[in-house]
Amino acid sequence: MIKEKSNMLLVASLLFMFCCNKLDKIDESSIKFRTLNPSDTGINFKNKLTYNTKVNIIEYLYYYNGGGVAVGDINNDGLEDIYFSGNQVSDRLYLNLGNLKFQDITPTSGIKTDNSWSNGVSFEDVNNDGYLDIYVCKVGPLSPKGTHNLLYINNKNMTFTESSPELGLNFSGFSTHSTFLDYDKDGDLDMYLMNHAIHTVRSYGSSKKRNETDELSGDKFFENRLNEKEKKFIDVTKESKIYNSPLGYGLALTTTDFNNDGWLDIYVGNDFHENDYLYLNNKDKTFTESIKNSMSHTSHFTMGVDVADLNQDGKLDVFTTDMMPYDPKILLKSGGEDLDKISRIKKDLGFEQQFSRNHMQINKGNNTFSEVAIQTNTHATDWSWGVLLQDFDSDGRDDIFISNGILKRPNDLDYINYLSNVDFREYNNSRQDVIKKKLIDKMPTLKIPNLFFKNNGNLNFEKVNSSYTGIPSYSNGAAYADLDLDGDLDIVLNNLNSEASVIENLTEKSNFISIKLVGNTKYPVTRGSRINVYLNNKKLVKEDIITRGFQSSSSHNVFFGLGKNKKIDSLLIRWPDGHKETKMIKNINQSVTISKGDYSLKNEDKVKIKKTNNFQIKYLPIKHKETDYYDYEKERLIPERLSFEGPAVVKADFNDDGYEDFFMGGAKFQRGKIFLSTKNKGFKEIKNFDLQKDNQYEDTDAAVFDIDKDGDLDLYVVSGGNEYKESDKNYMDRVYLNDGLGNFTRLQISLPRTNGSSVSVSDFNNDGYDDLFLGSRSITGFYGLSPYSFIMLNNGDNTLSPIEQQRYGMVTDSKWVDINSDGKEDLILAGDWMPITVLIQEDDLKFTNKTEKYGLSKTNGLWNVVDIKDFNKDGRIDIIAGNAGTNFKWKPSFKKPVKLYLDDFDDNLQPDPIIFYDFFGKYVPFPTKDKLDKQLPYLKKKFTNYNNFSNISDIKSLTGKAENDIMEIKYIYDLESSIFINEEGGFKKYALPPSAQLSSIEDFKFLKNSNDIIYVGNFTKYVTELGFSSANPGGLLQDLDIVNMNFNKIKNLPLPINTDFKEILGFDKNYLLFSNNDYIFSVSGDDFK
Question: pTM for the whole thing?
């Protein structure tokens, strides 16, 4: 298996991205820049690659990654200078002369001009003498013998002396980039060196290989001991608990204080199968790698990274780049996400989930992050390298710049097919160079524009198709600085095979402040200082960090756009050693230098971390355990696994002792359990023979009712699981009779046998006996077709009979309520690919679908839960329903719904479910060509290559059948979780707050006697192509404004990020949260009292 995976990933390394395609008309970003002519700037550096039989993409997988760029003021004249790293050309150093004019001082500076391969570059004052030094990373094995990383010490006269051997930083290997930080607060800069693996046998295996070492490819950490007896940097990689393994494919690197504890942490973005690393500083010269517990998933091929407070909540967020195309045509002919099987293999090998797209990780303040790139539509920017998060239009909000393009695109799927058909036996050793050149020439190429996403506030960014900037190119390293001191930030790009670019900011002038920090003799380091700017009841937060983007480092000045604000109320600096200073800045629109005051460390208060909420979270050692069943192995076009629906739970006082107990159903081969409340407010399981005997059933819902009218509560348990054919005996629902003491015995009666999902109780005929609605989720093997659901009448003799059996839809939840106040109980249903459905009870126990009458006919979504309440106290019943959320790859609307086509397209007497969705303005099929070819073999002949397949725009162009001829079409118009207010003309929708849209909402409960809502969610069982819905496991919505239907207080529950929560049961002062395939969690706090 390891070998198979190794081969697959080896091919993937060659086979990365797309093919030639003419770009549509370019719509420039509203943030205006212009690319300056090299003849005007004086910068003529060109990182040109020349084909070499020994050094090329076949021999070195990162051949086309390009070089880096660094900016910094080497001569302390107030103008930041530029250093470009070259791959097959010499590095160049340019002195800033002012007015965007530069002079190449490389020949006189002492910078080496050999042809060694350079990658990342950083300007840092390594020896604390007040002048910036330069550290350059090299790929030693591709360079002349003896090549190593270089440390240029500034001689203070615009010349440098290369001193890496003397200072212990002459590492030789596969280096990508470095970052400097004072990790131990001793007043000097230590260094993290990020290296990268190449595809060797040692690069594959389980995550346990992180404990191995690799002296060429493994990352390194060096402690600065220039002022101690060693007089150099010392390798403390092992002692600091940094991975030095052959698994790391490090491409992205930054440092920041993620948890705001006053100590700098490190983020490393890895390519391929290895996860990114989030190293939290333990404050004792060690780090703890924490990505698993902090982020539910990361970019698959992380190439660039930056941090900023994107939502202005005072916490620093993370943005990483990947290579998902935004052009629909390119998407359809490019390699994308892992196959579900590969994801499973990687999980079994110990790797965390990855997705091939940009990630925007919003910092929640409790060492966890919510990933929201899809919700913000910043997830797809093509083959992206550097990302810079800064306020480029000075409006007070940080925007997103992304450098784009790769010279050769080896993940084009037609190219992959071409590779698989090459007979390498035709090429003997003497002809190896011929085949290399031929393979490289066949790789597609395409220049694409760089992108600016303007931040409009509230995590609303400009659309990608309106965010182009500059000239289409192959841009890699990127850095920003106010190069002409005009009060805005310009950008410098290192381009492959064309001149480097200086992009001048043309934004209309807004207010700003630019801050240069200077340390003192006791503590000269400023890197990592945190600055809070207070103005007009707002707080802007930035850190003095320079390692950003890809292989690059940006301005050493901290820039704040102030928008229309004409003054700063105050400014708070937290220096890296923990000292704090408040400064008053009288005049804005200038660059100011702030020097560190002299303070005694002994008197300095420790950094205090503000608690984000007062919730107490505990877990009960009671676990729901799923069996491994993979729906997509039998239904290859299914978008989600319907077999993970439990646990079924219900609470009641089963033994009539005045305390509420609960039932928790089991998955297949796990028994259902009865837990009786004890006097000390705990729960104790009561063993039950019949529940144990019935452990072969998958329990998907449960309800209590008094079937025999004997005064105690019996139990109805729904069976499901999507594993068996319809009517299989394992789908039989069950009734358990209560003896009044909490002992249950199964009642042997005939009940429906479907993939059940919901049960609701009501005496809808008012005869004194509880009746039921039984909802069904799907027909196993026929995704999309609606199964039968049932309205069951209690016959009064311990039997139930269906009075209605209808295909209402793929039902997930149901509620009985008298919606029209006529004295008869009606039904509200929710489910997949169906609207919120209203069934009105007529005379003679007939139920009529009145969904359209109530204005709900186009509410089709992926609904999980529905509940009822009179929110505005007008006497009419309102509805609240939990949906999949908007942080979702499908972006439906009334005009462009997601469409599910059901028909027997290949005449094999089995319907094929084919989904189309709008992808950046064009309908595309959700299944890949490979999946469709297996489902409908005739398509393989119709579309002989992926380029032809990429022209598909509707069901007819795919199958030949027009929409009018399709057997059945289902739609999704809306994925927002919402409240529906019952008005005179029908229901009016009010979406829940954006934070409640970050994940699916699976259940909610109302807090006592209020409109306040506790909700839970997450769903990680979508196919890999859709990704996880895991950005918000739960929250609390409070203080509802019933006029505007807005919640004024919004809180997140500090729950585990990788857990799918399904059900909530409320007790006295706490709530039990039930998770799928995990433990029960108890949440309490002042909000629940």
Answer: 0.95
